[in-house]
Design a protein that fits this description.
- Keywords: Disulfide bond, Hydrolase, Protease, Serine protease, Signal.
- One of its GO terms (biological process) is proteolysis.
- Its EC number is 3.4.21.4.
- By secondary structure, the chain is α+β, with helices and mostly antiparallel strands.
- 16% of the residues lie in helices and 28% in strands.
- A hairpin with a 2-residue loop joins strand 2 and strand 3.
- The longest helix is centred in the first third of the chain and has 21 residues.
- It starts with a helix and ends with a helix.
- Bound molecules: arginine.
Length: 264
């Protein structure tokens, strides 16, 4: 093989991978919400602006995401007020984290306690593009069949498809832990700190890249996108961190850093 030919081959290879990445859309079988209608969601990115996870604001200093999104405090930036990740819309606010607080009992093998708090270096400016999400009270349960909404910039399907880099959203019913843990499904590996949502026939789901994002029921974030088996497979709903099990931990953590700040 001569050199020019080889170079063309390499270029094509690189382009194919790039195109494939660009084509892998967001949220399986959802739709694009009205831009800036989901104002509490953030995109967690690497310093070179690669989206890795979702998250959501709970006050102007704090973001909630999944513990498995922890890439290190110096490698991460948070973007609020975004819709299209590839277009500058003028509504984005970029913020660096000051501190990451993954749940102390997070277990990367079982995915138990997959939740993390991020404190921002400076407060986010709240406006019509950026707002705060409400959380459920400690131990509030959400009824089986209740329709909830999950949103994110993750894949639209595990293989690919053509979608722009805009936010996507999909409505899903809550699946009882009992059903989710049945032998036909996750067979006992769903803990009390997890929540399942999806259709038994599959088709709609969160997917890779949606992690850390919010599952909202009745206007409160009950779930954090955590894990699954593939995406949108029949019998395998998406698995979320049950936020209501961590309400006390969230409040206590935020309060402890607030008082620490006041003392210094
Ligand atoms: N762990 C994935 C992430 O890092 C999220 C997987 C969610 N999967 C699902 N089928 N709901 O983005």
């Amino acid at each position: 093989m001569d050199l020019p030919f080889l170079l063309v081959c390499i270029l094509l290879e690189v382009l194919a991978v790039k195109c494939q990445n660009a084509a892998q859309g967001r949220i399986v079988n959802g739709y694009e919400p009205i831009p800036h209608s989901i104002t509490y969601i953030v995109s967690i990115q690497t310093m070179d602006r690669q989206h890795i996870c979702g998250g959501f604001l709970i006050n102007k200093y704090w973001v909630v995401t999944a513990a498995h999104c922890n890439i290190g405090v110096n490698k991460m930036m948070i973007v609020a007020g975004d819709h299209s990740l590839s277009i500058y819309e003028g509504t984005e606010q970029e913020m660096l984290p000051q501190l990451l607080v993954p749940h102390p009992a997070y277990n990367s093998t079982t995915n138990n306690n997959d939740i993390m708090l991020i404190k921002l270096r400076a407060p986010i400016y709240l406006n019509s593009y950026v707002s705060i999400a409400l959380l459920p009270r400690q131990d509030t349960s959400v009824q089986e069949g209740k329709m909830c909404r999950v949103s994110g910039w993750g894949y639209t399907n595990p293989e690919g498809g053509t979608v722009p880099s805009t936010l996507r959203t999909v409505k899903l019913p809550i699946v009882s832990t009992e059903k989710c843990n049945s032998s036909a499904s996750f067979n006992g590996i769903i803990t009390e700190n997890m929540l399942c949502a999806g259709y038994s026939i599959g088709g709609k789901d969160a997917c890779q890249g949606d992690s850390g994002g919010p599952l909202v029921c009745d206007g409160r974030v009950y779930g954090v996108v955590s894990w699954g088996k593939g995406c949108a497979d029949a019998q395998f709903p998406g698995v979320y961190t049950a936020v209501s099990k961590f309400r006390r931990w969230i409040d206590n953590t935020i309060f402890s850093y607030y008082s620490r700040c006041k003392k210094n």
